[in-house]
Specification:
The chain is α/β, with parallel strands linked by helices. Helices cover 53% and strands 15% of the residues. The protein is built from 10 helices and 6 strands. The chain has a 6-stranded parallel sheet with strand order 2-1-3-4-5-6, sandwiched between helices. The termini are far apart. The relative contact order is 0.11. The chain has 2 domains: 135 residues, Response regulator (Rossmann fold); 55 residues, Winged helix-like DNA-binding domain superfamily/Winged helix DNA-binding domain (Arc Repressor Mutant, subunit A, Orthogonal Bundle), CATH 1.10.10. The radius of gyration is 18 Å and the shape is elongated.
Length: 201
C-alpha cells in the first residue's frame, strides 16, 4: 500500500483527487493539508511514502515543503502538481529533490500511475513542461539575488527589505542593482515581473 499525503489549498481539487484516488487498491490517502506549514506538519506526523504538493500554497510553497521533507523525511518521495508550470519552477523543484512534476490537468488515473512511478524510485516530469524548461535556459540570478528580488516584488521599501533579509540597506540596493543589470530592465519592479513570468522567483 502506498501511503499518500495530498496538499492543495484548493479544497475542491484536493477533495476530487482524494475521492478518485480512494478507488485505487494500492493507494491510501493518509493525510490532507491546505497550507505549506500544515503539509510539513502532516508529513512529519503521518510519514507518507509520497507527498503530492501543490506548487502555490499559503505559508510556504510546494518546493519549500519538498526541501524540508527531503531533510526531515528522506524516504518520502515528493511530487508537485501545478497549474503554474513555469520553467523556473521546474528547475527549483528538481534542485530540491522533487521526483514528480505534473500539471493539474492530469486525470486521477494518470496521477495514480505517476504516484506509483515516483514511489518506485523513478522520476516523472510532464514532457511539455520539461521542453519549456530546456528552451527557457537557466536563471541568471544567484540564489541570494532571487531571494532579495522576491522580498522586493510586492513593492516593499528598501529599509523593510533590509530588515527582513537581515542586511544593510546599501547591500540590498547593490543586490537589486545587480539584478536589474543582469535582467536588462529599468527597475526592480520590472525585474520582479520578468522573473515571475519565467518562474525564477
Amino acid at each position: 500500500m502506498i501511503r499518500v499525503l495530498l496538499a492543495d489549498d484548493e479544497h475542491l481539487i484536493r477533495g476530487a483527487f482524494a475521492a478518485l484516488l480512494a478507488f485505487e487498491d494500492d493507494i491510501e490517502i493518509v493525510a490532507e493539508a491546505s497550507t505549506g506549514p500544515e503539509a510539513t506538519a502532516m508529513a512529519l506526523h503521518h510519514r507518507p511514502d509520497v507527498a503530492v504538493l501543490d506548487l502555490q500554497m499559503p505559508g510556504r510553497d510546494g518546493v519549500t515543503v519538498a526541501r524540508e521533507l527531503a531533510q526531515a523525511l528522506p524516504d518520502c518521495r515528493t511530487m508537485i502538481v501545478t497549474s503554474h508550470g513555469l520553467p523556473g519552477h521546474l528547475k527549483r523543484a528538481l534542485a530540491c529533490g522533487v521526483t514528480g512534476f505534473v500539471s493539474k490537468t492530469v486525470s486521477a488515473q494518470e496521477l495514480a500511475s505517476i504516484i506509483r512511478t515516483v514511489h518506485g524510485g523513478h522520476r516523472y516530469i510532464d514532457p511539455i513542461l520539461a521542453a519549456d524548461a530546456i528552451s527557457a535556459g537557466a536563471s541568471p540570478l544567484s540564489a541570494r539575488e532571487a531571494d532579495i528580488l522576491s522580498l522586493a516584488a510586492d513593492g516593499a521599501p528598501i529599509l523593510e527589505i533590509a530588515e527582513r533579509a537581515a542586511l544593510a540597506p546599501g547591500t540590498v540596493r547593490n543586490y537589486l542593482s545587480s539584478v536589474t543589470t543582469k535582467l536588462g530592465v529599468e527597475n526592480r519592479h520590472a525585474a520582479a515581473q520578468l522573473a515571475r513570468q519565467r518562474g525564477w522567483i
